[in-house]
Amino acid sequence: MSVSRVRTFPAAALWIRAAVVGTVLLLFASFITLVSPAPVSAAPSGPTAAANLLTTRFVVWLDKAVEFDVLSLSNPNRVVVSLPDVKMRLPNAADDLETGLVKSFRVGLSAPGRSRIVIDVRAPVVVKRSEIVKQERGHHLVLDLAPAPSALQAGKSRAARLQTVQPPLPRPASRPEEIIARAYKPVIVIDPGHGGHDSGAKKNGVVEKDVVLAFSLILRDKLEASGRYRVVLTRDSDVFISLDERRAIAERNKAALFIAVHADYAGAHARGATIYSLRDTTARALQRSASSEVVNAVLTSQELSGVERSDARAIRSILADLAEREIAVTKERTNTFTRSVIEFMSVSTEMRPNADREANFRVLKTAKVPSVLIELAYVTNPQDARNLKSNAWRNKVADSIVTAIDNYFSYQIARLPM
Description:
Blueprint: E1 4-8, H1 15-19, E2 55-62, E3 68-73, E4 78-84, E5 88-89, E6 102-111, E7 114-121, E8 125-134, E9 139-147, H2 149-155, E10 162-165, H3 176-182, E11 187-192, E12 202-203, E13 206-207, H4 208-226, E14 230-233, H5 243-252, E15 257-264, E16 273-278, H6 280-299, H7 309-348, E17 351-359, E18 371-378, H8 382-388, H9 391-409, H10 412-415
């Protein structure tokens, strides 16, 4: 059972103001609101104003019942609550708060393991009620503040109603689908190769532009159904998109992954899937190019016209280093994703020997987005051709790529911002 002690101190008891120091308590939630059943207009402080004031109930939510002390002080007029350092929830302490007798309040640590709430009031008050009431969740510390008899005598009136200053009700729990909808979703750009007048490879009744689009649509639907990603297709119909525009779509959308989808062409014995990423020599050339672009931009920048030459050199060096690091991180992420695709895709379909390969495909030449090109199978191989036209095979392989993507984003480096 909690115990309270209520005492009134004279004006000389100013020690309380100096004692309210220390680390500010962490209040629960910034959405706390002020509940005011009856509006009160601002009035000047002092005994003569107390005649028009309401009895004010001040409520604090506590996570457990505790013993506390309540002091009513004057000059300045305030109520002080001393209690153990306990989790609490208070009303919103707005700068312009004036509800009933309460002008403002503050909370802090008064001593190791002890907390103190100071309630500034507009006139001398007495604490008519101070107790802890058990709630369904936690407890309420309830203080009823009334104008002091001297103030009431001066005003020749008594308060007739109760004004309440209280903490908010608990926020309703969000449904899982609402939490998922608000969560960050990496953007994945899927690029079905060819399209329009560019048919791609043809053999064994397979047209590359058609089968890669069909596969990409299935992959998109599976990724979107997971609720974890936002998916952008460079094309979702039989249209032609230039290679540079495909890459630009990924960069404009700040993609976390770029996946180009193709089907291969070779002799009839060649079979299986291959994963291509940008050749190391080309990646290093991109690093040098990006570094040079940064240096040239700084040299011609109008913002640096008044900067000392040594400072300009330092800035160019820092920016060039950052540009090179960005490309290095992109390359590392690409390698991580490539390994993930090979690991899981090899369970669902035939893979070429040494399936992890490098090439200088133009669509992969980006320093901003981890990018791979997946050759699903060979249109020139009879069995691969049958697979490319099979919905069952497409679904199985798409599932393995979704698993590879999930696995990739479980890596710390993939979760870091670009």
